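Researcher: Re-running this chain for the archive, since the previous output was lost when a drive failed. Same request as before.
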Amino acid sequence: MPPLVSVLMTAYNRQQYISEAIDSVLASTWSHFELIIVDDGSRDNTVSIARKYAAQDNRIKVYVNERNLGDYPNRNRAASYAGGEFIMYCDSDDTFMPSTLQDCVSAMLLHPEVSFGMYWPHSKTAPFVMPPEKTIHQHFFDLPILMIGPGGTIIRKSFFEEVKGFPEKYGPANDVYYNLKCSARAPILMLPFEFVVYRRHEGQEINNTYSYLYNLYLYLRDALEELDLHLTPKEKHWIGKKNKRRFFVNMVRFFLKTRDLKRLRDLIQRTKFGYKDVYDAIF
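Model: Regenerated structure tokens:
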């Protein structure tokens, strides 16, 4: 009988943290899971540590990529191995709460009409369903509720496949495009309890401020063009203009701080940010 939930753990040079991450999943009060660990070409002892755990617990499966794929391609690769009805991510440098699986899976089972669930940190309440139109409008015009990473979500594997998983071209902003795509297609279950203990350290992509600078602009520009976000043309124009203004201001600030003309040209080339975009950003 396949497990009800597949916990996906991607790893790259995480020997310092992965034992604690695995232990946290094994300590879950919900035991009907599989833990899929996919290593992305680590050069340390990450794989040997993971394999020691797999030898002791048949719920753990370890895969090693033939070449380094990168963060989100590896997340998609891990999902391809999943056999559970639901998919959750526990990053190899984070830890689950003991009740994470129990709380999330139980809530999803109580709402069979919902395929996507997300951490709701904004108030203490019972899990609740939010329709697409309300989710999108609240995110853009009230509170940015969709800025949650993969570790704060649960999704039915069938729905993950339907949306074709994570995009792979927006670097650290792939998750926000994914969240927009999922929540625009179907109702979302807001889950008001902690999923993970999120660890901050120097080796994380979140510290790559240059990558964030252009990818935060690109994902939203493309989302407005490619996704049915239940927005009027006027609303889309306002969001697009705001996105251009924010990118232009941040780009100027970056240049004034670094005086790096080469990277400034790179930003313009990557985003194809032209004179018309500058005009739209200013006026």
